[in-house]
């Protein structure tokens, strides 16, 4: 949300301040997994339970969890991580009518600018796990795919949970975008589909092991 009364030069300084503060606060959570999903998912929904399990499994594996800090899937993932004694990070955003930070964050940051927040989602991530969600979730998914596809970030797993939910999107990508030559077969391999939190965690852990082996050589 922009402050219309703020001179442009001062706005740049505010952006710089958010960047510096975010980087400093998140130094200790290198090697984190970022979890996205709907803010509208209620606690009684199976997706909420799955996201809570996901957060717990990552925490038990020593992998910090980063979310957008809000309700729904974000809250569930933070809750699972915090209750298991892990690092549970919320990157909250200032919005006109929402959102209140969920209470399950061991590190809580609040951003004014979406693009600074997005940078923080990626900076320390070793993987993205995408739970069912809406426009915001799709925005984060396709931004991650674009960054990896274009080599702007070191490749990391992008895992979509619940094959049934994502089937229509993946089918369209294959039958339309791939068929028209707007992406290629390697691009489609950037997406990994699973049905359970455990499968998602296993993919991220395998990536960590592979990176460690490469670093050792």
From TrEMBL:
UniProt-listed Enzyme Commission number(s): 3.2.2.n1
Which Pfam families does the protein's record reference? Lysine_decarbox
Q: Which UniProt keywords apply?
A: Cytokinin biosynthesis, Hydrolase
**SUPFAM superfamilies with a match to the protein in the record:** MCP/YpsA-like
The protein's matches in Gene3D superfamilies, at most eight in alphabetical order, are given as: 3.40.50.450
Query: Superkingdom of the source?
Result: Bacteria
Which top class of enzyme applies to this chain? hydrolase
Q: Catalysed reaction(s)?
A: AMP + H2O = D-ribose 5-phosphate + adenine
Family, per entry: Belongs to the LOG family.
Q: What is this protein called?
A: Cytokinin riboside 5'-monophosphate phosphoribohydrolase
UniProt source species: Simiduia curdlanivorans
